[in-house]
Design a protein that fits this description.
213 residues, alpha+beta, Jelly Rolls, seven-stranded antiparallel β-sheet, three-stranded antiparallel β-sheet, 3 helices, 29% strand, globular, RmlC_Cupin_sf, Cupin_2
């Protein structure tokens, strides 16, 4: 962390929690409930409010994940309310209540709440596999959205070094980087520069309450 003094480090703000333990982000428009955590996988429920620039503006919503893929994990989406739009290997689809969408390791994808649906999206997301790799877990979601919301409240934009440090730790790779260099970018920009030189971390104590290690 020899050059950590050069990094713009915002104050990390605590996240509101509902009585049932639900994590509340972006003025209550994005909520995450951890449903099941085990060695076999992790399931969480993601709630997206309708008519919000953070969650209800279609693919342009602030919380929409970038087009990406998981190196080792399978990801399963099960809508419980509303309509989930998703992009999978360059083709756009819609999933409704009762549908199950399975994304295999290496498949490029992203998803968002259908802004034309009558209700906001509520979707259960399960990630499985990866062996001994940490992969995408509850710590990733809590830290990612906690960090993004902290910056929003302070009128700042996320650091690419921090965002890639998060993604590198979860084996999540940006799919739009040309020539298949996404994994290399994770290592060089997120890990070597972001973590080792600038001092960004893949997780922070303020967002790790109740997280399994």
């Amino acid at each position: 962390m020899a050059l950590s003094f050069l990094a713009r480090k915002p104050k990390l703000l605590p996240v509101e929690r509902d009585a049932d333990g639900t994590w509340v982000f972006f003025d209550g428009t994005k909520r995450i409930s951890d449903l099941s955590i085990s060695g076999n996988g992790y399931t969480s429920r993601h709630m997206f409010a309708k008519d919000s620039p953070y969650t209800g503006a279609g693919r342009a919503s602030v919380v929409t994940p970038p087009y990406h893929y998981h190196i080792y994990q399978t990801e399963i989406f099960e809508p419980k309310q509303g309509v989930m739009c998703y992009l999978l290997e360059g083709k756009e689809y819609k999933a409704k209540v009762g549908d199950v969408v399975t994304v295999q390791p290496g498949q490029k994808h992203t998803f968002w709440s259908d802004q034309d649906a009558e209700e906001g999206l509520r979707v259960d997301i399960t990630v499985r596999g990866g062996g001994d790799r940490k992969g995408l877990d509850e710590a990733f979601f809590h830290n990612l959205f906690g960090y993004m919301d902290s910056l929003r409240q302070q009128g700042q934009s996320p650091s690419i070094f921090q965002m890639l440090a998060f993604m590198d730790s979860a084996d999540v790779v940006l799919a739009d980087i040309p020539f298949g260099l996404g994994r290399l970018v994770n290592v060089v920009v997120g890990r070597w520069i972001g973590r080792y030189l600038l001092g960004y971390q893949p997780s922070y104590k303020i967002y790790n309450e109740g997280v399994t290690q």
